[in-house]
Structure formats: C-alpha cells, structure tokens
Amino acid sequence: MRQAGTYSSMLAGGMSGRTGPHSLPLARIKRIMKQSSEEVKMISGEAPIIFSKACELFIEELARRAWAAALRGKRRTLLREDVAAAIANTDLFDFLLHVVQNK
Amino acid sequence: MSDDSPKSPAGKGKRPHESSEESPRSVDGVDEVIREQDKYLPVANVLRIMKKALPANAKIAKDAKETMQLCVSEFISFITCEAGLKCMKEKRKTINGDDVLVAIATFGFEDYIEPLRLYLLKYREVSKQGFAQGMDYSNSMVPQQGFPQGMDYPNASVRKLLPVTF
Predict the structure, then answer these.
(1) What is the interface pTM, i.e. ipTM, of the complex?
(2) Where do the structural domains in chain A lie, given as residue ranges?
(3) Which InterPro entries does the record associate with it (chain B) (predicted)?
C-alpha cells in the first residue's frame, strides 16, 4: 500500500497547493458533518482532519473496486454502474446502497 | 445495520455539479439555505484522489464522479451520526477525533484505523513544533488561505504548514 503521499502531502502543501496540507477542504468536511444530524453541534478540530484522511482512503478503495467492475465489463472508462457494482459487492458499503439505487 | 440511517445529504434529483441551486431547510423554524455545493466535497479533489487509485489510462465518466461525491458525503454523515450518538450517550457535547475513529472501526473500516492514527500522530507533532525537522518541504510554499490563528512564526522564512480554521 502506497504510503509515500501521507506526510509529503501533509507537509508539502498538497498536490495543487491550493487546498493546503490536507487534500480535502476541512471547512467543507465540517459543514457536511453538521448536516448529518440535528444533534451534531460541536466538533473538535481533529475530527475533520481525521475525516480528510479517512475520505481519501474511502475514495481510493471505492474507486479501486469500481475499476475492477469496469474491467469485468471490458471497459477503461469508469461508469456509475461500476460504482454501484462495487457497492453491491462489498458488505462494508451496504450503507451506500440507497445512494445508487435511487434514480 | 442500525435503523438510524443518517439523513442523506444527496436529496433526490439534485446533482453535485449543479452548484447554483439552493435547497431551503428549516432548522428550529429558522430557514437555513444550504447550497448544493456545500453538501459535497469538491469534484476536483475527489477526482484527484480517485486517479491516485486508478491506472493512468483510466477514464472516469461524469456521473461516476458525481456518484463518488454522493458516497463520500454519505460516508461522512454515516460515521458522524454514530460518533454523535456515542457523545450523547456519554453526555459530551463535542465530537472529538477518538469518537470518529471508534465509529470508523465500529462500521468495519478497521483497515483505516492504523493509517489514520499515524496521520493524526504526525499532525499533532507538526502542530506542536510548527514544522518538522528533517522533512523535505522544499517546494511547500503553502498559500495564504486558512492559516492557524494565534501561531507566531518569528522567522518569516519558516514555511506555514497547517491549514486550520474551524
């Protein structure tokens, strides 16, 4: 598993330099957290930081699994249906079933 | 799976790229407008991370990118709700880093825990010292936006590393 990006991206300002050391915007993460439920009121500084890394890991995993589905379909273009297949094939992603079942 | 499924930030029929639309939401009787773009992480960031995981020749359809945005927001909501429940049970008001980590592990993402702990450790070290010794950040001019408040850098050439404002 490639770890090289972890610290260099954190300390070197990210790949584009525009979002700072974390590759995902912390304020936006915090806003999404707040929208998740009425009870969520106060969030510590570290929580969005953890999410910025967790989301990265999540996106990578879902993308890889979706890509496996694309390859099975003999394509090199990732489609929505590949993401849906990855979700359907992975118990861990059961919480996402409703996201891809809606039209 | 728990029945307390988090409210989906997606909304039926709303696509992440339609950032000019606003959806009104009433919170305690006060209307709060949440812009579509605020419900999702920016597509450019999401795309960049997806590309890291895929071969160089991979192409990604627009609706796959949008679906990924939806999924990430759902991931954040899902974990946050669980972390929030834990806080409520323990009569705490603030969701902290450990709550998030526990929720992530609870839902089966144990593989993420080690890299996350490492990341958090490094973050804490870096924020204590202001910069890390021996790290190569020779091309790390971090732009001005989002800098830590209240941190003094007496030496103007010290690179500012942390984002920060919450």
Answers:
(1) 0.82
(2) 5-100
(3) CBFA_NFYB_domain, Histone-fold, Transc_fact_NFYB/HAP3
For residue B7 the two structure tokens come to 């409210």
- Cβ neighbour number for residue A28 with a 10 Å cutoff: 21
Confidence (pTM): 0.71
Cβ-based contacts of B68 with chain A (< 8 Å): 59, 62-63, 83
Q: Which long-range contacts (CB under 8 A, 24 or more apart) does B130-134 make?
A: B130/B158, B130/B161, B131/A11, B131/B158, B131/B159, B131/B161, B132/A11
Q: Tell me the per-residue pLDDT of A20-31, one tens digit each, with 9 for 90 and over.
A: 456 799 999 999
**Separation CA A94–CA B80 (nearest Å):** 17
- Residues of chain A contacting residue B94, judged by C-beta atoms under 8 Å apart: 42-44
The CATH architecture one would assign to domain A5-100 is Orthogonal Bundle (1.10)
For residue B8, the distance in angstroms to the closest alpha carbon of chain A comes to: 8
Between CA A65 and CA A71 the distance in angstroms is 10
Indicate the SS3 state at residue B80.
Answer: helix
pLDDT of residue B23 exceeding 70, the answer is no
Coarse DSSP helix, strand, coil percentages of chain A, rounded to the nearest 5 percent: 65, 5, 35
Name the CA radius of gyration of chain A, rounded: 16
The DSSP secondary structure of B45-71, one letter per residue, reads HHHHHHHHHS-TT-EE-HHHHHHHHHH
| Cα–Cα distance for residue pair B163/B149, rounded to 1 Å | 10
Mean pLDDT of A21-47: 90
pLDDT band at B155 (very low <50, low <70, confident <90, very high): very low
